[in-house]
Amino acid sequence: MTTTRATEPLLDRDExxxxxxxxxxxxxxxxxxxxxxxxxxxxxxxxxxxxxxLPAEDRSGRLILIGLGAAxxxxxxxxATLGYDTTFATEPDPDxxxxxxxxxxxxxxxPAPPLAxxxxxxxxxxxxxxxxxxxxxxxxxxxxxxxxxxxEGADLSWLSQAxxxxxxxxxxxxxxxxxHDEDRLTEREQWVGGERVVDxxxxxxxxxxxxxxxxVRDLSAGFERSDRGTAAFEHQPLIGILTTPGxxxxxxxxxxxxxxxxxxxxxxxxxxxxxxxxxxxxTQLRSQVQELVGSDIRPxxxxxxxxxxxxxxxxPRRSWPQTVTEWH
Length: 328
Ligand SMILES: Cc1cc2nc3c(=O)[nH]c(=O)nc-3n(C[C@H](O)[C@H](O)[C@H](O)COP(=O)(O)O)c2cc1C
Fold this sequence. Notes:
disordered N terminus, binds flavin mononucleotide, 2 domains, NADH Oxidase, single chain, 4-stranded antiparallel sheet, alpha+beta
């Protein structure tokens, strides 16, 4: 019989690589990948890397925590695939504010816990900024995506045609504010466009430019236009607003978990999604979006879903050992 010495780590190198690579495929604003990980036996801490924050575009730190919530959800999916049931805590250690979530690996199970079925979607999901086909999404598929967000304590509200029109005018106001904010533009240029090999958003991932007004966010904010094709975008996009009951940091983390659960579920149905968050990055415009969803919940993300008409593009990631700073 072989026994594990108390000093040996619970996870071997292959398992750590499996978990951390999966966590690192999470979406993050401008692909900053604002995470690092510490592993101690069955405990994996997800840590905010403040050197990768976006002070101009994410002053409150809300968006960075959403990305960290998404990485936490991926960890749970990968742990389930290794057979581990998981529990987690948000903001687990008052003496270590940088630890935003803590995932506990529980007993190993056969068959693997249900989240394992999403593992295959981690590598297929990417943010898609191009046009969608006119194929309508079945209502049952929309319900699956909503149910996924609800599992994590958030919700997703679909906009009506009138809601889309209202949102479109708010988005235009936000785009205009973006274009006149030097700090934001400087930050954008630092992370978006050109060739990227470890982080940031490469020009190929920016998607086609719309031939007429469309509900998309051109992340390049006016630069990086010459190498990109043009396309006609859908006239009636399917827009969902991800909401949480309140607006505390723990709810931003929850929103990130819900985002990723919803996106992976959508990917499993061959749907693609992109973000229209510009309207939530300005306090006064966020309150206007608030009116679209109701006063008792808080809008966290605006997402456009559909069946993609063009090929999507992967964005780069750092290698997993670069993000693990402790492992016992
Ligand atoms: C909180 C959050 C906000 C985001 N906001 C936007 C956005 O407003 N516009 C956009 O095009 N992409 C947005 N993204 C998508 C990121 O740019 C994308 O996740 C990142 O570049 C990594 O690429 P991937 O999602 O294809 O893996 C956001 C992602 C997160 C997690």
